[in-house]
């Protein structure tokens, strides 16, 4: 969030049953990519269902600063008039990506193989996050980066004048790094290859193919090898952004832990690179069903139906599932606190470098609400208190992290005493409609 946004303290208290239908907004990952690839196509891309959260609005503004025309019509459709691969203009101002790691890392990739220089900054959370994971591979294309100590923003990228293609094995499981390399590869001649050991969300690959790029993914002994042929002419697209499974997670998990609940969440994407939380919840014994399973735009989609599930039990989440639910561990830990037994989460070191150190933030807040939690560098274990067994009664810090704020508010809906967060303002980065949507289901969440 902007440094100027005042903190918004919020409190959630035990609520009656959550009942009804929840219309979830557009997918954040796909929304960023639609704007960026639209700006790199020649002609006009039309986008419906775009997430109008602050993160995505910051990316839209960045694309304007690089010379694309980005407008929203009265019906809510977004129009992006792209400048073509290699057509970015040099920005006259600093690019402020706010809270968004996805925004800044993908945009750095997209501009790194053009002969222009751009300076990036963000809010207090983003300016703490590591950027070397992106600038290291961008240097292989010929780009240069100068930032603060430890590879932090603010940072200036001087794009490569004569980019060369790259073959790069991503050292951490990160769709942002993979995507930054692929977007940089667009303006390099020849073939750029990215290798990832574990499959991460594949929206960039799918969308690049949709825009007409030549891109091939092969499963090999090395991992997934993605080969992109550079310097295509991207054709503008009509994109209908699917609803975000990471946002759906909050009303779904709230329904599972609030007595008597029955909530329908229509049209949620079940792309296997994103749906790990729902698999895990079902393994815990959640009454979570997929209704009306279908395909939309090449993606599996279902209406999710979540009902109160007082008999959930802790599980060991397989580490190889981590990438497919990386943003959902905070809300999973809230469900785990309301189950019986231990929920063990290993292989999740990446949680320490998100919008906040999400393991530290959740451990501190759950502990303050009377839940037993242990953690190590890349693992944590939540000991369940059973249905309705969380004492609550704490005020927790959200650390400028939307998912931490929403997770603790959901905790408060099923705890014995209210749970507060010091600042709910960051929720607007990804899920601006969170408060009215939860209130319409019957959740007692208020600004305090
Ligand atoms: C995202 C990738 C993930 C995820 C983030 C969105 C993306 O980050 O946590 O919320 O849209 O590519 P990493 O690439 O750092 O794992």
TrEMBL record:
UniProt record, GO biological process: amino acid biosynthetic process; aromatic amino acid family biosynthetic process; chorismate biosynthetic process
Keywords: Amino-acid biosynthesis, Aromatic amino acid biosynthesis, Cytoplasm, Transferase
A Pfam family hit: EPSP_synthase
Positions of 3-phosphoshikimate binding: 28-29, 33, 174, 176, 327, 354
Enzyme Commission identifier(s): 2.5.1.19
Stretches the record annotates as Disordered: 1-20
Catalytic machinery residues: 327
Record bears the keyword 4Fe-4S: no
GO molecular function, one term: 3-phosphoshikimate 1-carboxyvinyltransferase activity
Residues binding phosphoenolpyruvate, per UniProt: 28, 101, 129, 176, 358, 403
Organism superkingdom: Bacteria
Pathway: Metabolic intermediate biosynthesis; chorismate biosynthesis; chorismate from D-erythrose 4-phosphate and phosphoenolpyruvate: step 6/7
Top class in the EC scheme: transferase
Location of the protein in the cell: Cytoplasm
InterPro entries, alphabetized: Enolpyruvate_Tfrase_dom (IPR001986), Enolpyruvate_Tfrase_sf (IPR036968), EPSP_synthase (IPR006264), EPSP_synthase_CS (IPR023193), RNA3'P_cycl/enolpyr_Trfase_a/b (IPR013792)
Function: Catalyzes the transfer of the enolpyruvyl moiety of phosphoenolpyruvate (PEP) to the 5-hydroxyl of shikimate-3-phosphate (S3P) to produce enolpyruvyl shikimate-3-phosphate and inorganic phosphate.
Subunit structure: Monomer.
Protein name: 3-phosphoshikimate 1-carboxyvinyltransferase
Source organism (scientific name): Salinihabitans flavidus
